[in-house]
Specification:
By secondary structure, the protein is α+β, with helices and mostly antiparallel strands. It contains 13 helices and nine strands. The protein has helices at about 1-25, 60-65, 90-110, 110-120, 140-165, 190-200, 215, 220-225, 245-250, 290-305, 320-325, 330-345, 345-355, and strands spanning about 35, 40-50, 65-70, 80-85, 175-180, 205-210, 235-240, 265-270, 280-285. Strands 1-7-8-9-6-5-2-3-4 form a nine-stranded mixed β-sheet, sandwiched between helices. A hairpin with a 7-residue loop joins β3 (about 65-70) and β4 (about 80-85). The N and C termini lie far apart (about 50 Å).
Length: about 350
């Protein structure tokens, strides 16, 4: 039985590889651009968010409290921590009320969030048409929404700070980087258009850098790059994805080009790492409104700031690494937050939680 399973699996894999090669052989060679343009990129800034769900135990885990830590790559910017009750174990109407109250408090007390909400043209975060209704029912949907809200709000605030360099005409070119695609949770097209517009108005270019894109994990794309000896090239490179070529041969790539209204960028494959033979390629989301020649200049500047040893893989932009290092919730930080939390609880609440074995 086991030998039969192994033989069948080998046959399936062999056929799959042959089919992939046949399909890729019909594709034209990729158009490759060297990222060697002279660049005046002086400031490259990024924002990172860490939720650290796997580190928290006790009352945080059992009651459904998620702690987010948000940080930018700017040295002087403080790290901010937020706590949300993302999975209230309550009847639906009470659950909705609790979530709405948390969002109202966030919008009232946090000026960065309030400014972003205003820029997006929203009245309230929890209003219908802003936050998907699924966030009131699903803790994972609510957590994803909150994470993106915190990240995009801080990116917008950081963009406004960098905008001053552009307005003062100091000859300084700032760039914003996001870890991931240029999208906001699972919001509709109207929000994506507005998100695109407010960042375009800042005149500070933004790119989304994805290190684990499904596109990069695709055996088709890997074989396509390998077959055309892309990895053997020396120096940083960018490969725009010819959407029409892929789609004419039957591939569906709309999710990578914002055609579904969820994003305002288009994908290109980028290697910032200059070493020949390096397979450290990133999927970079490029705003639709950026001119291609400007893209080459800006990404050349990012490549010049990248290093061959950056976490989590060589060539990862330094600003993103710096923001990640600041935002990450270490076990020491989690222990400190939990200890502080316990000390500030009223005695009766502490005793109740202790009796329920939540500590």
């Amino acid at each position: 039985m086991q030998n039969s399973f192994i033989e069948k699996s080998k046959d399936i894999i062999k056929e799959a590889i042959e089919r992939i090669k046949e399909a890729v052989d019909r594709l034209e060679p990729p158009e490759i651009f060297d990222l060697n343009k002279k660049s005046v990129l002086n400031i490259c800034a990024a924002v990172a968010v860490d939720a650290g769900q796997t580190l928290f135990r006790g009352v945080f885990k059992n009651i459904g409290i998620v702690v987010y830590q948000v940080a930018s790559s700017k040295e002087e910017d403080p790290i901010q921590s937020y706590a949300f009750w993302t999975s209230p174990g309550l009847p639906d109407n009470e659950r909705r009320a609790i979530i709405s109250q948390q969002l109202e408090r966030l919008q009232t007390e946090d000026s960065i969030i309030a400014e972003f909400v205003k820029a997006m043209g929203w009245i309230a975060i929890h209003q219908k048409g802003v936050m998907p209704d699924s966030c009131f029912r699903s803790s994972s949907a609510f957590s994803s929404f909150i994470r993106d809200l915190l990240e995009w709000s801080r990116l917008y605030e950081l963009g406004k700070q960098l905008q001053n360099y552009v307005k003062k005409e100091l000859g300084i070119q700032p760039v914003l980087l996001r870890d991931g695609t240029l999208r906001f949770a699972s919001l509709a097209e109207g929000h994506t258009n507005r998100l695109s517009k407010i960042f375009q108005e800042l005149e500070v270019p933004i790119f989304g850098v994805t290190k684990n894109s499904a596109l990069l994990r695709s055996p088709d794309v890997y074989y396509w790059l390998q077959k055309n000896k892309v990895y053997d090239r020396k120096g940083p490179i960018i490969i725009p994805i010819n959407k029409q070529m892929f789609e004419e041969l039957g591939w569906r790539l709309e999710r990578y080009f914002g055609d579904n209204g969820m994003r305002f960028g288009r994908y290109a494959l980028v290697r910032f790492d200059p070493m020949p033979g390096s397979q450290n390629v990133f999927a970079v989301d490029i705003p639709n409104y950026l001119d291609w020649n400007k893209v080459l200049v800006l990404l050349s500047g990012i490549a010049q700031q990248a290093t061959a040893s950056t976490y989590p893989m060589p060539g990862y932009p330094f600003a993103l690494k710096k923001a990640h290092d600041k935002a990450v919730l270490s076990e020491h930080r989690v222990s400190l937050l939990e200890s502080t939390f316990k000390r500030t609880l009223p005695v009766e609440v502490y005793e109740l939680l202790k009796n329920l074995s939540l500590f």
